[in-house]
Amino acid sequence: MSFPKILVIDDQFGRSIDDRRNLCLSFAIKDITGDDSNPEKIDNPVAESFFCSAQREENGVISNDTGIALSAVKNGWPDSDGRFWSLVLLDIRYVSGRINEKGEPQGQGGDNDFGIRILEEINRYYPDVPVVMLSSRERNDVIEECRKKGAVDFIQRIGFSSETTSPKEILKQKLAEHALLSDTRKLGDERLRITGKSLSILKALRSARRAATGKGNILILGETGTGKENCLQGISTMSLQSQRGLINSIILMVRQRPSRRMNSLAMSKVHLPGRTLTGKVFLKWRMEGRSL
Fold first, then answer.
1. Pair (116, 201) in one structural domain
2. Which of 64, 99, 238, 264 could form a disulfide with 259 if both were Cys (CB 3.0 to 4.6 A apart)?
3. Do the domain assignments include residue 292?
4. What are the residue ranges in the chain where pLDDT is below 50?
5. Is 34 a domain residue?
């Protein structure tokens, strides 16, 4: 079974195997980094993850290095199997400097916001990579700056759990909302599955998941053969399973010739069970030129 593939860029979890194991247990992540001789065995993992410290050690000094982080992103964008990172979890503070008698770096200037520098570089060279900040900093202190730099969300590492939401469920929520995930639905008819795994298709599937959790109407645009019916079936299923809302109606529109004028489109309405078309169409999901 193929799981979502996450890249965790964090000095603590990149260097410390014990801390990493605790994180894997909390979030139900399978460690695939390869440097742990006895990784935690995770039952029903939410995702598999590669860990990167974004640091290098030389002559008893640990230095932060954006190049190491970017190299880790590049290696999975895509990897040798053609898979893309589903999500990147990125820390903000990276402690560097000379290693003291306790085996820990002493810290130096620039450590507190080094993760922001990594975020800027990722957004510059890999703007389609979804980055969620994972930090012990207070959310309200950094969320706006992180979003301006390209982050899509924030998980507070200390105190992020509540009585009703476990770390595992929080990660599942972030994956559902932001991650680049292939179509893994269990279907009676496999012909209905969207089998494409290109970046364009993964982004379109993410748009479909987001749309399926809302209320209102959806407009799907695309030429014949681009998979509108498959998308319709997927959105319909996800909408019925969603606890947030139920879509009123999905409208399929077939582009007959190259034109953006609405009168050049053939339209068919598809109403979901027990719903009627109300209100205005709020989403145009364009799939022209994308192959399934």
1. no
2. 264
3. no
4. 255-292
5. yes
- Beta carbons within 10 angstroms of residue 30's beta carbon: 17
Query: Do 148 and 254 belong together in one domain?
Result: no
Find the CATH number of the domain harbouring 97.
3.40.50.2300
Same domain, 172 and 235: no
pLDDT, residue 93, reads: 95
Last residue of one domain, picked from the residues 178, 208, 237: 178
Distance CA 75, CA 67 (A): 12
End residue of a domain, out of 155, 178, 201: 178
Any domain includes 291: no
CB 42 within 8 A of CB 80: no
pTM (2 decimals)? Answer: 0.82
* Domain residue limits at 261: 190-286
Overall domain count for the chain: 2
279 backbone φψ class: left, alpha, beta (φ>0; ψ -120 to 50): left
What is the DSSP pairing of strand 47-52 with strand 61-64?
Answer: unpaired
> C-alpha angle 251/254/258, rounded to 5°?
135
Per-residue pLDDT at 268: 46
Residue 71's pLDDT is what? 98
Q: What is the pLDDT of residue 251?
A: 55
